Design the sequence.
């Protein structure tokens, strides 16, 4: 049983997933996708996934599993759970590929501003100003 938590730095829209494993029984047999559950644990994996795939053995990474686009729009965190394999003691994943769109997050930073209702001359020190007059005769 394996669980991968993939944070997305912007807003993602995965359209396909590739899972490459070994050519033996350690290749994963099932893949479950969960969206927008940060810090997901194995206890959380018991819930209903957003999408589930029964995998075929793919040691070359040629098979792409399409996701349901309506369910996977605006993804900021993707969890991929592999609950079982084809009968081996351990599960081995060599490559996970995500295909889709990504847009940068538009984050507005907090701006700290100080406004003065009336200026305090002590806050605005100036060097000595010498008045000069120039007469043209």
Sequence:
């Amino acid at each position: 049983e394996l669980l991968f938590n993939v944070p997305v730095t912007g807003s993602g829209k995965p359209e396909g997933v590739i899972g490459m494993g070994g050519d033996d029984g350690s290749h994963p047999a099932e893949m479950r996708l969960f969206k927008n559950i940060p810090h997901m644990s194995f206890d959380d994996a018991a819930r209903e996934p957003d999408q589930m795939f029964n995998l075929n053995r793919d040691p070359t990474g040629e098979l792409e599993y399409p996701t349901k686009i309506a369910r996977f729009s605006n993804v900021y965190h993707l969890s991929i759970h592999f609950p079982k394999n084809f009968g081996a003691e351990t599960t081995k994943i060599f490559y996970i590929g995500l295909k889709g769109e990504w847009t940068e997050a538009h984050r507005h930073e907090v701006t700290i501003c100080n406004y003065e209702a009336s200026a305090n001359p002590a806050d605005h020190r100036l060097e000595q100003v010498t008045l000069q007059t120039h007469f043209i005769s």
